[in-house]
Amino acid sequence: MAKIKACVVGLGNRGYDIIRGVLLKNDDIEIISVCDVYEDRIARAAEKIKEAGSEPRGFMDYKEALAVKGLNAVFIFSDWSSHTEIAVYAMKQGIPVASEVGCEYSVENCLRLVKTQEETRTPYMFVENCCWGKEELLATSMARKKLFGTVVHCSGAYAHDLRNEIAYGHINRHYRFDNYLNRCCDNYPTHELGPIAKLLDINRGNRILTVSSFASKSAGLEEYISTRGDATEEMKSARFAQGDIITTVLTCAHGETVLLRLDTTLPRSYSRDFTVRGTKGMYMQDTNTVFLDGDEEF
Prior knowledge:
Elements: E1 4-9, H1 13-21, E2 29-35, H2 39-51, E3 57-59, H3 62-65, E4 73-76, H4 83-92, E5 97-100, H5 107-120, E6 124-127, H6 134-144, E7 151-159, H7 163-167, H8 169-172, H9 176-182, H10 190-199, E8 208-215, H11 220-226, H12 233-237, E9 245-252, E10 257-263, E11 275-278, E12 281-284, E13 289-292
Parallel strand pairs: 1-2, 1-4, 2-3, 4-5, 5-6, 7-10
Antiparallel strand pairs: 7-11, 8-9, 9-10, 11-12, 12-13
Helix pairs in contact: 4-5, 6-10
């Protein structure tokens, strides 16, 4: 079988790690084009790919990177704000897209993304890794086998202490700093919503009807920065719009409710808090337990 000739756009931590840990370990993929807005990232990625036996071309303009002849796919790992722009352009060129999560900031551009895919029929995949987590797949399989009875509620979270990554974003060239400075929303919902949508058959007969989000005040990042001896003046003067805890409630056409939580700017351990509740049982990821009707309570 001929190899898939791929372009990788966005060579920061996520893009470089995927190249190193996933793509270069797949014999069916050859990376022939890489792109980033920083030259040192291009050089680092190209060197790693050369070690595996390929000679990718490097670009700072994604349109030039996507113009390389013979491309069969593009992997998009750039900052959130650019995903739709690059994906739409690639699909119009007939290049299949795998896009990292963090998709779009507006409903209008979400519709633009969908419309482009429908018009071009170019394959597009939203790369949400948690849809293939073993715990999420276990709970989804159990739900489809009706072991939980009728599922009435699911919940999940992106609960991850990112204060260091966000606060030092301009130093580390990470886009989260500007997002937390200027926006207040659940900016990373798909780790939990992706698996829940599959389990509840969203867009496979079921659909989301309403979305209501609520934000706590913003205090965690500013207090964290105030304790850092190496904080820059920009960091010290920042007043972040992003609430520390974002709670979102969804209602579905088949009567289920979904509770999502973004929790990234207060001290805590990592959790996705994936939970499924049904008339005959439940699954709780934080304790990795299944409780079925008739089991002894513990």
